[in-house]
Design a protein that fits this description.
This protein is α/β, with parallel strands linked by helices and about 180 residues long. Helix content is about 50%, strand content about 15%. Bound molecules: 4'-phosphopantetheine. 4'-phosphopantetheine (PNS) binds next to strand 1 and helix 4.
Length: about 180
């Protein structure tokens, strides 16, 4: 019997209850589901790719057929590399549709054998987006019912001024090291 493997690509910065709801739904209809975190060098994310992967791994540890990976480049190429025949994406509202349709059609143009499947999260999550969760958390609002507990905890740590200071210092020191390595080479 044919086994269907799907890739669920995204930024997941941070993963939300809406993402988790979609993963649960996807895990029920596909034999295998790979949650694929985009390594996007252009964006300045709140969480590192490693952090996002760790959070997603903890959130999905109860699903036998779900794994979490990272990727760069084209989604379609990544999907082909891992032997997936489906790209899973969530649609929360009509406002998502235009962008998602455009992406699905472009992906089809690039790789006609790959099918995009849209699923809807439960309506109680339909207003949740990673961008709004970041904004609410950054402005001190309550994000407890928007994200899983471990993500809420990580967001609170991120917003802690003392930890923020340490992280900034670490980032600056890493940037300095990269610059001096470049100068030397
Ligand atoms: O969670 P997001 O940010 O809405 O996810 C967008 C994502 C990662 C699915 C999209 O940006 C993507 O597929 N990026 C990989 C590069 C690519 O394939 N671009 C062409 C898409 S048509």
């Amino acid at each position: 019997m044919k086994r269907i493997k799907a890739v669920y690509p995204g930024s997941f910065d941070p993963p939300t209850n809406g993402h988790l709801d979609l993963i649960e739904r996807g895990s029920k209809i596909f034999d295998e589901l790979v949650v694929a975190v985009l390594r996007n060098l252009e964006k300045a994310p709140l969480f590192s790719v490693a952090d996002r992967r760790n959070m997603l791994e903890s959130m999905t540890s109860g699903f036998d057929n779900v794994s979490v990976e990272t990727f760069d480049g084209l989604t379609v190429e990544y999907a082909m590399t891992v032997g997936a025949s489906v790209v899973l994406r969530g649609i929360r509202a009509i406002s998502d549709y235009e962008y998602e349709l455009q992406m699905a059609l472009m992906n089809r143009k690039l790789q006609p054998s790959l099918e995009t499947v849209f699923m809807m999260p439960a309506e109680k999550y339909s207003y949740i987006s990673s961008r709004l969760v970041r904004e609410v958390a950054q402005l001190g609002g309550n994000i407890d019912s928007l994200v899983p507990e471990l993500v809420a905890q990580r967001l609170r740590e991120k917003m802690d001024p003392a930890l923020k200071f340490v992280e900034q210092a670490e980032r600056k020191s890493a940037q300095r090291q990269t610059r001096s390595r470049k100068k030397r080479s």
